[in-house]
Amino acid sequence: MTLTQVAQHAGVSTSTASRYLRGQLNVQPETAARIDAAVAALDYRTGSTGRVARGSRAGTSAPGSSARGTGVVALVVPDFTNPFFTTLAEECADLAASRQIPLVVAVSGKHGERNGGLSPLIGGTDVLGGLIYLGMSRTDERLARAVADGLPVVVIDEEIDLDLAVDTVTVDNYGGAYQATSYLIQQGHRRIAHVAGPSELSTTQERKRGYLDALADAGLTADPDLIRHGPYTEQFGASTFPYLTRPGSAPTAVFVGSDIVAVGMLGAAELHGIRIPEDLSVVGCDGIRIGQWLRPQLTTLEQPVAALALSAVDALERAMARREAQESAGNGGAATGFEPARTVLPLHLVIRGSVAPPSA
User: Fold this and answer.
1) How many CA atoms lie within 13 A of 17 on its CB side?
2) pTM score, whole prediction
């Protein structure tokens, strides 16, 4: 018999059954009776230690559990090749440590392909106390199953298409892109390219929309040939020049949807005989630290990483508190009467040396 079967037999979530049996959760007497009856009826036992020992109903934690009783929190990121994800993970880890919340980091892969390690983590809601999810896939069904099973979840940075009752923390990608493109227009540029991320992502779509609206509001017509979509990698950035340097149609400026892509462009510019910013002005997005060490230094839309992490951790603690209240009420941790909150933070344009007025 598995713990999931015990939970189903008792009519509670796997998390509720697990934490009750470990002595980490107080529940209503009738809920406790249902779980105890399910354990007895199914003869549920752990692999090597016999029947699961139930702890004190006064809420004393089992050995090795969190001092706050929250359980382990997981942060899911697409990869660590992009410094933006690394910096965000560091901020979240520092905040969790300051609040005595144990945190682990899982890497999902850019398209959620690393199922071997991620699915057991998300699916094992008896292990997790909560999840901060930053993915590059807008339809992760593992996330939907975890939320349905009562796991507290906060989605950050990239919006998802699933109809889930979870808090989200994002940035104003549209407003930031509009600001960056308008800045290039103010510098005198009229042919402005946009090197964008994967077309299916919400961040890509909002940044592209801001770019197009800024051009339109300035009376400029967007050239479809100057819009390139690709992955958020240096290699993609370096590969864009053959498309952007065609005689008679070359842009004088480019708004890049990711700093890591802009790094690839700055690194490859000299190979194509392009001087930055004399021949091509470049504005990136994310504000990664390496941008200020490039030559020229990268003008960028800076992400409020510290505020993103703080908002995410705060939202997750509220979600975990809601689950505690629901579980104590004996309904298995399912959210009732909850209106998800959506936090949108501003991007900040940092002006450095990679932008100049177009040459004659």
Assistant:
1) 24
2) 0.77
